[in-house]
Amino acid sequence: MENKEKQQKEEVxxxxxxxxxxxxLEITEMAADELESDADKMADLEQKCKTLENDYxxxxxxxxxxxxxxxxxxxELIKSAGEKILINILPLVDDFERALKVMDETQNCDxxxxxxGINLIYSKFISxxxxxxxxxxxxxxxxxxxxxxxxxxxxxxxxEELKGKVVESIQKxxxxxxxxxxxxxxxxxx
Length: 190
Description:
Elements (H helix, E strand, L loop, with lengths): L1 H14 L5 H60 L2 H23 L5 H21 L2 E4 L11 E7 L10 E6 L1 E4 L2 E4 L1 E6 L1
Parallel strand pairs: 2-6
Antiparallel strand pairs: 1-4, 3-6, 4-5
Helix pairs in contact: 3-4
C-alpha cells in the first residue's frame, strides 16, 4: 500500500512542470497585454456610457420642452376657443340694440313690425346655432328616451297612443354634434 502512495506522489510531482524565469516574464507580459486590452475596452465602454447619458439628457430636455410648449398651446386654445363663437354672436347683439333703439325712438310702436324684427333676430340666432352644430331635440309625441329627455312629471295620457310618450315639452333640449348638452324637460303620459 505504501508503495502505491509513493508512486502516486511521484507521478504528481512529474506532472507539475517547473517554470523558468523566461516563461514567467512571457506570462507576465501576456497578462499585462490582456490588462491593457481590458483597460482599452473599459475606456471605450465608459465613453459609450457617457455618450448615451448625454443623448438621454438631451432627449429628456427636448421632451420636457415639448410638454411645456403643448401645455402652453393648449392653454391658449382654451382661452380663445370661444372667441369664434362670440364674434359670430356680435351681429345678433347689434340687431337687438337696433330693435331697442327703434322701440325707444318710435312712440307708436307697430306690434306687427316689432314681431317681424324679433322673428328675424330669432331666425338668425337659430341659424347661427345650427351652423355651430347645435340642434334642438324634438320631443313632443316621441317615445320617452332617457338619452334625450328628463321627465319632470307624469300625467294620465289623453289617449292610448300617448302612453309612454312625451305629452308636453316644458324646456327644449339641445345637442352639440350629436352629444346632449341639455336634456329636454318633458311631461310623460301614463
